[in-house]
Amino acid sequence: MARPATVTIDLEAIAHNYRLAKSLAPEQQALAVVKANAYGHGAVPVARKLESEADAFAVACIEEAAELRVAGIRKPILLLEGFFSADELNYISEHNLWTAVHNQQQIDAITSASIKKPLHIWLKLDTGMHRLGFSAAEYPAAWQQLKALPQVASITLMSHFSSADDPHSPVTAAQLQCLDDISRQCPSPVSIANSAGTLIHSSAHRQWQRPGIMLYGSSPFAEGQAIDQQLRPAMTLSTEIIAVHDLQPGDAVGYSGTFVCDKATRVGTIAMGYADGYPRQAKTGTPVIVNGQRTRIIGRVSMDMITVDLTGINAGIGDPVELWGKQLLANEVAPCCDTISYTLFTGITRRVHHRYTGQRSSGGLLTAV
Hints:
With 369 residues, the protein is of the alpha/beta class.
């Protein structure tokens, strides 16, 4: 391996986080959400790690489900956005996929479909997110229509929180009230708890939880919660120092000279940039860990390189740098980049070397480069 930019995925940490989700609602079931390439962690390795204990998986679309099926994953897979055209229904039926249904056009397509095996439907109720789903006024009729179809094997009542990551928001209680009102009219298994709902809203623990970001060891909460301490970070983004310079007061660093030294400054250049997925908008002062010591980015992030402050740091060429991971949480880095951990994880690009720990194949540790 030449360029040292590497992302290391701890699959055992992901398994631990799934078990945590299950332990919070031990009598219920939990989908492992692996959409968007398992939030940048690798959908196939993650699903293989979890398949022996996950109740089912969830992805955004049929392409993501097909990737798992080709890789040999056999547990049920829910399509969170449902299907986009009627010609997907045969594949959904034949490959044990479950599908969300959120509009009348989808119901009409199912009604007209000739399929070998009936479908498991997750009928979406809009309880206040106002993104997908039937309104409370529309839902009972949609439920009754699907219930009468021979093409339908089961219906799960599904909704989605808009503000569960804010423990003080009154919106969550209002959404649950709407959910309960409809559930009494349309008796079905229920799913609404995302990671935030799973972690701190016990009243949202229904038949199916849907942990997503928490599987990857990142808290969904802007304000830390006590339970966050039980999450294990799964992704470590790392690289090495490739150059060191000693600069004088008044010397500028990087494009446009946005950082100017106010004293004698030792500057390290690291092999990482926005072409690797590290956010260009990261500000001077964004934390990094160099050789086990905490320091900061200085100057602008460029395409292939970042400059860091080595003043007072015992480090030189070849020493390790952690951009986020077990020593430095992504949730601390993200606000310095005007973003959230979700975009940090999903933004890693193909040229970064990928390494997996926590699961052995016949050839040893799984790696991808």
